Amino acid sequence: MKIHITATGNLENQSINTETEINGRTKLVFRMALDQPERRENDDEFGVTWAARDGVAVHCEYWTRHPEHVSRLLRKGLPVQVSGHLTVDTYRTKKTQESREWRALRIERIAVPLERIERVEIRQRNQGTKPDTNQLWAAI
């Protein structure tokens, strides 16, 4: 079962890294801070308002053939919107062999605000190559 998620937040202070897996696939790894909505009772006609409270950090993985292109666009503090699905893996600790869970948001699309983009260069697609299905989208 996949849980599809669209989330908006800011990239955290940690660096944005590329990692190569055993099978040779490359992924971009980063953390983003999400605001958690908090329900507050009030006395108006609606009775309830939602406000942001302390955020939660989410580990994100973006699998792409060209992580260096995407990583050049991302900076700490940058507001982004991501879409993807939540993955939960289990593992055992080396020392005690306790079972633990690792949660990550496997990103399918990343959107950044257009006002943060200064210049875009489009390169010609090479003959005979397939388009990358993990495209970077700019939010309006």
SSE layout:
Elements (H helix, E strand, L loop, with lengths): L2 E9 L5 E4 L5 E16 L6 E16 L3 H7 L5 E14 L6 E15 L22 E4 L1
Parallel strand pairs: 4-6, 6-7
Antiparallel strand pairs: 1-3, 1-5, 2-3, 3-4, 5-6
Q: Structural class per helix/strand content?
A: mainly beta
The number of E-state strands comes to: 7
Name given to the CATH architecture? Beta Barrel
Number of domains: 1
| CATH fold type | OB fold (Dihydrolipoamide Acetyltransferase, E2P)
Mean pLDDT: 77
Overview of this protein structure:
- The chain has a 5-stranded mixed β-barrel with strand order 1-3-4-6-5.
- A hairpin with a 6-residue loop joins strand 5 (79-92) and strand 6 (99-113).
- The model has no long low-confidence stretch (mean pLDDT 77).
- The chain has one domain (3-139): Nucleic acid-binding proteins (OB fold (Dihydrolipoamide Acetyltransferase, E2P), Beta Barrel).
- The chain has one helix at residues 67-73; strands spanning 3-11, 17-20, 26-41, 48-63, 79-92, 99-113, 136-139.
- The protein is built from 1 helix and 7 strands; from the N terminus they run ββββαβββ.
- It is mainly beta and 140 residues long.
What brief labels describe this structure?
flat, five-stranded mixed β-barrel, 140 residues, OB fold (Dihydrolipoamide Acetyltransferase, E2P), 1 helix
Summarize the structure.
The chain has 140 residues and is mainly beta.
